[in-house]
C-alpha cells in the first residue's frame, strides 16, 4: 500500500474531525429548508380545501386530528303562539311550524290559553328564540277566548310603570293578525294591539306586522290563506337571514337623523333585530307611530298615545282647560250675582269631575269608572293572592285577604300635589267639592259589580286557584285609597254605612287637610292619616298642599284623630334626603295624634315627570327604613315594632296599650259594632 494514501486518509479524517461543526451546520440548514418546504406545501393544500368546503362546515386540521369549528348560534329556536276561535289561526300556526322545521330549527307550538305570560314570557329575553304571534280578532274587536287573558296581561304590563320600557328587551317577535276588513272600526285590532304592547315593553320586531283579511274583495292577495302564505314566506326568509347573523339594511327612518346601524358596516342593523342595543329604532314599515312607552301609567308627559287618546298622566292640557272654564264660570257668576243657596241647586249647575277625554284615558288605563267622580281598579296584590303568591302588607299586618279586597274611591279629586304622587298630579284638584254628586247607593252597587266583572276575567287563567277565585267573588274589605281624597265626598258617611251593612270592612285614607270632615266622620274599620313630613317647611315641599293654612289644618287633623274612638293609623312615607332626619319632630306628632298604629314605608319611585324632581336616589333601602323605625321607636316608649313586610318596604309600629276594643279588621263583630253606631 502506498504510504502517501494512508497519510492522506489519515489527514482527511483529521480535517473532517476538526471541521465537524461546519458539517453539522450544513445538515441542520438543509433539514430546516426541508421542513419549511413541507409547511408551505401543506398551507397551499389547506387553502385549496377552504375554497371548496363551505365556511359553515369547515374543519380545522390540527396534529392529524379533526375538531369541528365552534359556530355561533344566532337563533336557538322558534316559538309560535296562537289565539284561535274557529281554528284558522291554529291551522296557520301548524303550517308555519312545518315550514320552520324544514330549516332544522326547534319549534314549539303554544296555545295562548295554556300559556302564563307572568311566569314565562320574560324567559324569552335571553333564550335567543324568535317568537311568532298568530292572533285573531273576534267580536267587537276583542281577542278570542283563548287569547283574552294573554292580551289583558300584556296590556296591563305595557301600561304599568313597574315593568319598565325594557322589560322584554331582547325578545324578538313577529305578529300576524287575522281579521275581516268588513268590520272597519276594529279590523285586526288584536294583532295591532299585541304588536304595540310588545313594542312598548321593549321587545324587538324582526319584521313588519302581517294582516290577514277574510274579506276576499279587499284582501291584498285574494284570501286570508294567501295573505298568510305571503307573510310566511317573508318570515321564513327573515328567519334564514337571522340564523346566518345577517342584518337587514336600515329603512332610513331613524329618529332625529341618527342612524346607529351605519356604524356596523354596509349591512346595517334592522330595527327590531335581536342585536339592536336600543329600541328607539323601529320598523320602517310599521303603520302606527308607536311612540308611547310602558311608562304611560307612571305619568311621563313626553309620550303621546295612539289615535289622539290622552293618557291619565298626560292630562296637563285638560286640567288647564278645566281651570280656564272654572275662572270663566266664576266670572260669569260674579257678574250675575247668583248665589247658590242649596246643594240641589248647586248640583244642577255643577259639571262632572270626569270629562269625556279623562273617562276615555282612565278606562284605557284599566279603571272602571263609576258615575261622574268615582272609580274602581283591581290591585296587583289581588291578582297575586288569587294565584297563592302572597298578599299585600295589609294581609301581613291586619289579616286582610287581598283577593277579597276591593280598591276604590268615591272621589278622584285631591287637595295636595305630592311629589311622590303616582298620578303625577294629573287627577282633578280642589279645596272643596265643586262637582256634580252621585248617590252612594249607586256608587257602591256599581263598584262591586265592576270589581266582580274584573275578577271573572281570571276564571280559568293558568295558576289561579279555584277556591281563591270563588272567595274573591265576595268582597269582604274595601280600601278607600285608590286615588284622590275620599273624605271630600259629601256623602262619605252614607257610603261607609252601606259598606258596613254589607259586612264589608273599610280602610279610609286621608291627607290630613280636612279636620272638620275627620271629626264628622262616622267610625270606620281603620282610619289612616298620611303624615308625609313633620315640619311646616318639609310638608310644603313634599305634599305641596293647595290650602294656605295647610299646616294648621294638618295639626288640627291629627288632634281630631286623637279624639276618634276607633282604630287609627299614621302613614309615614320616607323620602330620602327630604324627611328622614326629622325624628324628634315625628315623635312630637305621634304624641299629638296618639294613633294605634304607625306604618312607615319607603317612597315608591313612579318615573320621571316635569311636575316632580323625585329620583331613584330618593328611595330609601329597606335597611334604611328599618333603621329609621328603630330610632323612632326609641323616642316613643309607648310603641314597639309589631310587623314587617319587606316586599313593600314597610314596617308596622303598634301601641303597647291593650287593644281589646280593636279586634282584627277581618272580624265581622267589629263591622257589626260600627254599623250600629
Query: Segments where pLDDT lies below 50 for 5+ residues?
Result: 53-69, 249-308, 336-348, 658-677
What is the share of helical residues?
25-40%
The helix-and-strand class reads: alpha/beta
The rough form would be described as extended
Tell how many strands the DSSP assignment holds.
18
Subunit arrangement of the protein: single chain
Query: How would you characterize the largest beta sheet?
Result: 10 strands, mixed
Integer-rounded radius of gyration: 36 Å
Strand order within the widest beta sheet: 9-10-11-12-13-14-15-16-18-17
Tell me the fraction of residues in β-strands, as a range: 5-15%
| Number of helices, where a helix is a run of at least 4 consecutive DSSP H or I residues | 21
The mean pLDDT is 78
Q: Your description of this structure?
A:
The protein is 38% helix and 14% strand. The chain has 677 residues and is of the alpha/beta class. The strands form 3 sheets. A 10-stranded mixed sheet has the order 9-10-11-12-13-14-15-16-18-17, sandwiched between helices. Helix 13 crosses helix 15 and helix 19 crosses helix 20.
Short description:
The chain has 677 residues and is an alpha/beta fold. Helix content is 38%, strand content 14%. It has helices at 3-18, 20-52, 88-101, 117-120, 148-158, 189-200, 224-243, 316-336, 343-349, 356-364, 380-386, 393-398, 440-456, 466-472, 492-501, 515-520, 536-543, 550-562, 583-593, 622-635, 668-676; strands at 59-62, 65-68, 77-83, 107-111, 129-136, 172-179, 204-205, 210-213, 368-370, 374-377, 405-409, 477-480, 505-510, 526-530, 568-574, 597-602, 639-645, 650-655.
Amino acid at each position: 500500500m502506498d504510504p502517501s494514501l494512508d497519510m492522506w486518509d489519515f489527514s482527511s479524517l483529521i480535517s473532517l474531525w476538526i471541521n465537524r461543526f461546519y458539517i453539522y451546520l450544513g445538515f441542520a440548514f438543509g433539514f430546516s429548508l426541508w421542513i419549511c418546504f413541507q409547511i408551505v406545501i401543506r398551507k397551499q393544500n389547506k387553502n385549496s380545501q377552504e375554497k371548496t368546503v363551505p365556511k359553515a362546515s369547515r374543519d380545522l386540521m390540527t396534529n392529524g386530528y379533526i375538531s369541528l369549528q365552534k359556530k355561533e348560534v344566532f337563533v336557538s329556536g322558534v316559538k309560535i303562539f296562537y289565539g284561535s276561535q274557529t281554528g284558522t289561526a291554529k291551522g296557520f300556526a301548524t303550517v308555519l311550524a312545518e315550514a320552520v322545521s324544514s330549516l332544522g330549527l326547534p319549534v314549539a307550538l303554544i296555545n295562548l290559553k295554556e300559556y302564563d305570560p307572568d311566569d314565562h314570557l320574560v324567559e324569552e329575553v335571553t333564550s335567543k328564540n324568535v317568537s311568532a304571534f298568530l292572533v285573531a280578532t273576534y267580536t267587537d274587536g276583542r281577542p278570542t277566548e283563548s287569547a283574552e287573558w294573554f292580551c289583558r296581561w300584556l296590556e296591563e304590563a305595557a301600561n304599568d310603570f313597574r315593568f319598565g320600557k325594557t322589560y322584554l328587551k331582547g325578545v324578538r317577535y313577529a305578529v300576524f293578525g287575522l281579521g275581516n276588513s268588513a268590520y272597519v272600526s276594529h279590523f285586526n285590532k288584536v294583532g295591532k294591539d299585541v304588536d304595540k304592547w310588545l313594542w312598548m315593553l321593549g321587545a324587538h320586531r324582526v319584521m313588519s306586522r302581517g294582516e290577514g283579511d277574510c274579506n276576499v274583495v279587499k284582501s291584498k292577495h285574494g284570501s286570508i290563506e294567501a295573505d298568510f302564505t305571503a307573510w310566511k314566506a317573508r318570515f321564513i326568509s327573515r328567519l334564514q337571514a337571522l340564523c346566518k347573523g345577517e342584518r337587514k339594511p336600515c329603512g332610513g327612518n331613524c329618529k332625529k337623523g341618527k342612524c346607529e346601524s351605519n356604524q356596523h358596516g354596509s349591512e346595517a342593523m334592522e330595527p327590531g333585530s335581536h342585536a339592536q342595543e336600543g329600541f328607539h329604532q323601529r320598523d320602517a314599515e310599521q303603520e302606527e307611530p308607536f311612540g308611547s312607552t310602558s311608562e304611560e301609567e307612571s305619568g311621563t308627559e313626553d309620550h303621546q298615545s295612539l289615535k289622539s287618546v290622552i293618557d291619565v298622566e298626560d292630562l296637563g292640557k285638560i286640567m288647564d282647560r278645566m281651570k280656564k272654564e272654572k275662572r270663566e264660570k266664576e266670572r260669569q257668576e260674579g257678574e250675575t250675582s247668583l248665589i247658590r243657596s242649596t246643594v240641589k241647586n248647586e248640583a244642577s249647575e255643577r259639571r262632572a269631575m270626569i270629562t269625556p277625554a279623562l273617562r276615555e284615558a282612565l278606562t284605557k288605563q284599566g279603571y272602571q269608572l263609576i258615575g261622574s267622580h268615582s272609580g274602581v281598579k283591581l290591585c296587583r296584590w289581588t291578582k297575586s293572592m288569587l294565584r297563592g303568591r302572597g298578599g299585600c302588607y295589609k294581609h301581613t299586618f291586619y289579616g286582610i285577604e287581598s283577593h277579597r279586597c276591593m280598591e276604590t274611591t268615591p272621589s278622584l279629586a285631591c287637595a295636595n300635589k305630592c311629589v311622590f304622587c303616582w298620578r303625577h298630579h294629573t287627577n282633578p284638584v280642589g279645596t272643596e267639592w265643586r262637582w256634580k254628586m252621585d248617590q252612594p247607593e249607586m256608587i257602591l252597587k256599581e263598584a262591586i259589580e265592576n270589581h266582580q266583572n274584573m275578577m271573572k276575567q281570571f276564571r280559568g287563567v293558568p295558576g289561579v286557584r279555584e277556591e281563591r277565585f270563588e272567595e274573591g267573588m265576595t268582597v269582604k274589605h274595601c280600601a278607600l285609597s285608590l286615588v284622590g281624597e275620599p273624605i271630600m265626598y259629601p256623602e262619605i258617611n252614607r257610603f261607609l254605612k252601606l259598606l258596613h251593612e254589607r259586612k264589608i270592612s273599610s280602610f279610609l285614607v286621608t291627607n290630613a287637610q280636612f279636620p272638620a270632615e275627620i271629626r264628622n266622620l262616622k267610625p270606620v274599620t281603620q282610619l289612616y292619616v298620611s303624615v308625609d313630613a313633620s315640619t311646616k317647611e318639609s310638608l310644603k315641599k313634599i305634599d305641596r298642599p293647595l290650602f294656605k293654612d295647610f299646616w294648621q289644618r294638618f295639626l288640627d287633623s291629627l288632634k281630631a284623630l286623637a279624639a276618634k274612638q276607633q282604630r287609627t293609623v299614621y302613614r309615614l312615607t320616607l323620602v330620602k334626603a327630604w324627611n328622614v332626619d326629622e325624628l324628634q319632630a315625628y315623635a312630637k306628632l305621634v304624641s299629638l295624634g296618639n294613633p294605634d298604629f304607625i306604618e312607615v314605608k319607603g317612597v315608591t319611585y313612579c318615573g320621571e315627570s316635569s311636575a316632580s324632581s323625585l329620583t331613584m336616589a330618593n328611595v330609601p333601602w329597606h335597611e334604611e327604613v328599618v333603621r329609621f323605625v328603630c330610632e323612632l321607636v326609641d323616642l316613643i316608649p309607648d310603641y314597639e315594632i309589631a310587623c314587617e313586610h319587606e316586599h313593600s318596604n314597610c314596617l308596622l309600629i303598634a301601641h303597647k296599650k291593650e287593644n281589646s276594643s280593636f279586634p282584627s279588621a277581618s272580624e265581622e263583630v267589629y263591622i257589626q259594632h260600627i254599623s250600629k253606631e
